[in-house]
Amino acid sequence: MPHPAPTPLVVAIRVYPDLKDAENEFNKRSRNWRRPDAMFVFDTETRTDEAQSLTFGSYRFVIAGQTLTEDLFYGANVPGKDRETLQTYVLSKTDTPLSLLTRSQLAEKLFRDAYKGRCLLVAFNFPFDISRVACNYANARRFAGGFSFDLWWFGESRNRFRPSICIKQIGSKRALKGFTSRATPDEEDLIPEGSTTGKAEKHYIFRGHFLDLRTLAFALTDRGYTLDQACEDFGVEHRKQIVKRQGVVTKKFITNRAEPIIRCPYCKVANEFRPMAERIEGWFRCENCGHNAMPLDAEFKCASSKCTASQSHRFPDWL
Amino acid sequence: MTITTKVKLRDPEAAYRRHTIAQRRVGVGAKCACGEARPEALIREKNRVIGQACKRKQNGMTGKDDHHFAMKANSPVTIPIPVNDHVADLNTAQQDWPKQTRENATGSPLIAAAACIRGFIDTILHLIEKGLHWVADMLETADAYLANKLGPQWWKNTELQKLPPKAA
Description:
Number of domains of chain B: 1
CATH topology of the largest domain in chain A: Nucleotidyltransferase, domain 5
Shape of chain A: globular
Strand content of chain A: 25-35%
Mean pLDDT of chain A: 82
Oligomer: heterodimer
Number of helices of chain A: 8
Largest sheet of chain B: 2 strands, antiparallel
Shape of chain B: extended
Order of helices and strands of chain A: HEEEHEHEHEEEEEEEHHHEEEEEH
């Protein structure tokens, strides 16, 4: 069979030379990202008018899945009556002590936990929630076309010793997010994330760990979610409650926040695991099988017969 | 039920922040050659990480520190503590005290008394952890070993059978 005559083609090759210095500067091995152990999860409630200003919000500080701190905060322009409602609610919660923080106190906690402590900052529809907590905005230089939110105020201008949070929407469900640099950062702030050497790098800027649950839900399901729909589809125990009048601070509106129920893994009631009763603060016990749980104590081990049996080598794997 | 010797932290957020900053300063996964891995007890040097105790030993110094159990502003009383435990456990526990109690700038006797109580609790918990916890762990391991070797009721017909408590 005769071979056809080869046809010459013009081929262009684009070459990206690796610069030696750049390679030395960015050591990939020392910058492996690890999900932080701690999470700062927050949510805000707003007025329903055009300004949608912050009324109040709540946050939880979670380490290894256990809530260690939980507080409420309120906006700067909340009227005294609403503040009293919040204060009454906080004082009525004797089982899980809550504090009522101002917006600036929350911002201070956010700086210490999310920037200094480098924990994961979590919210549903993060750009909206962080913009409610912010006290000023400007056009972002880092993300052209985006916003730069200032959470920290000094006198009558932004505090340049604190970072801003830049956000740029790149789609209806996705946004770029990051801390900006700040004046005179501490030495520990200049240590790159995941560094094995612990050496500070002069020009390093910590960009933060942000998680938008709306984006996560979209990434997992390819669907745009509201908080209520997401709670339903992901089987969240305490769904968003329906409030007749949004934006008005009432007791029901405040209790909209999720409350944890500790359940026994061995006993069932109808189609659910049986809720455990709280004996003393932080100690839960199943009244059916005697299983104990102390969610705040990571080292606690239950010595009930069911737990002991489950650790035996004779205990079937499929149970 | 496992013995729990941890007290609930007054400010868990600050404790987490201090720990992550200490971890960041020495680097991820840093460890001394002796096995010490608590970041608060490690020193980052030019080309290595070394524990406080090993560093002292290398310089011919003692491995013990005099720990002000109620902090210097509240009581001059000190107790000798291994240097790694001093910096990683007891000093860290004191960082969780209220600032007013730590500093006691006015010299209030009530604050000094509060500091003594807090210091006593921290020290006792440390001693329980270091001096007693291992005994409980060892007894449980020994029981499992004997049950494996001699059967589940290995204490029958031995002197131990006379000892309380009697299980039903």
